[in-house]
Amino acid sequence: MNRKKKLEEIIDYFFQENRKYFSFKEVKEAVFKKDSFYELETLKKNLYRFKKEMKIFSAGRGWYSIISMPFILDKKPVRNIINYVKKEFPLLAFNCWSIQQIQSYYHHIPIKFIIFVYIKKDYLKTIYDFLHERYKNVYNNPLQLELEKIFSIENQTIVLRPSISEEPVKGNYAQVEKILVDLYVEKDKLDLLDEWEYNEIFQKIITQYRINIPKIIRYCKRRMLNNCPLMAIIDKYCQ
Q1: 57 by DSSP, 3-state: which?
Q2: Element at 159 (helix H, strand E)
Q3: How far apart are alpha carbons 98 and 174 in whole angstroms?
Q4: Of the candidates 80, 61, 97, which has an alpha carbon nearest to the alpha carbon of residue 176?
């Protein structure tokens, strides 16, 4: 059996039992365990060939997937608020996402939606005042005690949060890797959904569409979620 065929068999094994992703580290260990004479450069070249042949696809640096279609977010639910803020504060760094962007993956389709705006802590009050002139339901980084007293979800509810360094964003739009991690944090803070439904949303998104695995893992670490149940969910579907 040639070495390309051996690699194909190992990759096929990784994708059994509904698994959609694997890392270069994993495949290297499996290959060298099966064939200690398999050269590293040969492994890299064969993986490159598989990508060219569209047998596997990049899922971020050092990660691969059999899913061809990347996840593409609908920008429309947050476009108006982004344009509104940018017009007044063109140099301000901020990003947004909305529950509406992932509503189709909920088990129970949400009726009302929250838009999250992430911005440097020093600008939270300024942007809160600015948005409150136009939008009725705006909350400035509410704490748990405040939420129990005043928080109610209505149409066009906006929640401001401090930005986190190295967030997965493109311009002012949060990427799906950021949304999945932020939603995990906010589901308990705002009582948005339970653990089971979050797991369903996560599973549907990352098994139907290709996401960037290193980005989501790194952002979990940036949000100090190293040992949280979310990492177990990532392990289940990605490792």
Answers
A1: strand
A2: strand 157-162
A3: 9
A4: 97
Q: How do 157-162 and 138-140 pair as beta strands?
A: parallel
The letter for the amino acid at 239 is Q
Tell me 70's DSSP state: B
E strand or H helix at 146: helix 144-150
Gap between the Cα atoms of 46 and 3, Å rounded: 9
pLDDT in tens, 111-135: 568 899 999 999 999 999 999 999 8
CA dihedral 139, 115, 213, 121 (to 10 degrees): -30
Q: What is the DSSP letter of 71?
A: P
Residue 53 phi/psi, 5-degree rounding, is: -80, 0
d(CA 52, CA 15): 19
Tokens matching residue 102? 């992932």
Within 10 A of 142 (CB to CB), how many other CB atoms are there?
Answer: 17
Residues 189-225: tens digit of each pLDDT: 888 888 899 999 999 999 999 999 999 999 999 998 8
Q: How far apart are the first and last CA of the chain?
A: 27
